[in-house]
Amino acid sequence: MLTNLPIVLVALLTVQQNAKGTADNVVPHGEWTGACTLSGELNKLQKRGAHRLTAATGAVTSYIRQYLKTHIFFEKSNSGIYTPAQEALLQYYAEKTNEALSSVADDKVLKTATAIRDAGAAAAAIGGFIRTLDQIAASGTHSCLEATAGANSAKTKDPLGSAPAAGCEEDPGDLTAVDTATPSLTGGGYSAPNYDEDKSASSNGVGTAKCVFTKAKASNHMLNPAAGDQNIAGDPHYAGGLFFLDTAGLKRRKLDNAAALAAGSLILKRGLLASGHIDQTPQNFEAKKPSQLTADAAFQAIFKRIVLKETTTPGLQGPDLVTASKKPWVTTPTPTTIMEVTSPKCKYPS
């Protein structure tokens, strides 16, 4: 009996060691910091979406105000009698208002709002997962995140709620309208280096940092932890589908083609595709000077139609158009030219 005691002790110690969950390896430093970088880009995308909405509504408001100011000014100064050039200018602002209104149509606003929501959901999922792994640490001896690239070293936890790396903040603050570029978000995926293939997200180096979250689905200690002999039948996905548990351990999805992402990664898929719904250039209000109006194709077309009575677009352009417009107008008060419409003597409102 006594001769068998060492064998029994070894068996008991083996079971005890497995029960502690010190099974496999950490998420490499480059992988989890890269995830935070992606989360940060998605947060920037939300701000750009907010900028698109505020810019569009601002343009509508400004063009309506400009139309009304111009209309009131001409009404007061000319007692309700407009020159053809003044009618052309009013028509120009009316058409610019309609253009701006089209950018805030219900379908476009909803599409942009949905894109902001999708980018925010993906960013929150990624940041939440990394912050959770950051808290699973044992005072620098064991952890789920690698502290230093390539060392398989245990990372000490950060204070609860703080960001382990930029982009993984728990509270990104109120949404602001900032036209921030996100060149790595292509509208069809994510173009950062090494994201063109599924990649292992568990380090195989020798060290103290070990984490059961990254262990392969076979004999994973998340089920029946004392024995560790249960295979995980499902396909666990984390961080909105950025990471997934594979037969060989934790892996990170390829993201260069977001449309190819399937079930389990749909939150991330929608977040990446959101860029394509936000990147439309918003229409901005422009208060143009007379010299700028003469070069404006839209105003030229209106001026030809109303003032020169042309029904086709080909004809005079630029300086020639201004010269032609200086001919006297029968029974109409001044101003009569494009340049005079906004001249200082008319005290045109700014």
TrEMBL record:
Topology with respect to the bilayer: Lipid-anchor; GPI-anchor
Matches recorded under SUPFAM superfamilies: Variant surface glycoprotein (N-terminal domain)
GO biological process: one example: symbiont-mediated evasion of host immune response
GO cellular component, one term: side of membrane
InterPro entries: Trypano_VSG_A_N_dom (IPR001812)
Region Disordered, annotated ranges: 153-182
Signal peptide, first to last residue: 1-23
Domain Trypanosome variant surface glycoprotein A-type N-terminal: 8-314
Keyword Coiled coil applies: no
Gene3D superfamilies assigned: Variant Surface Glycoprotein, subunit A domain 1 (3.90.150.10), Variant Surface Glycoprotein, subunit A, domain 2 (1.10.470.10)
Protein name according to UniProt: Variant surface glycoprotein 1125.5217
Compartmental location: Cell membrane
Keywords in alphabetical order: Cell membrane, Glycoprotein, GPI-anchor, Lipoprotein, Membrane, Signal
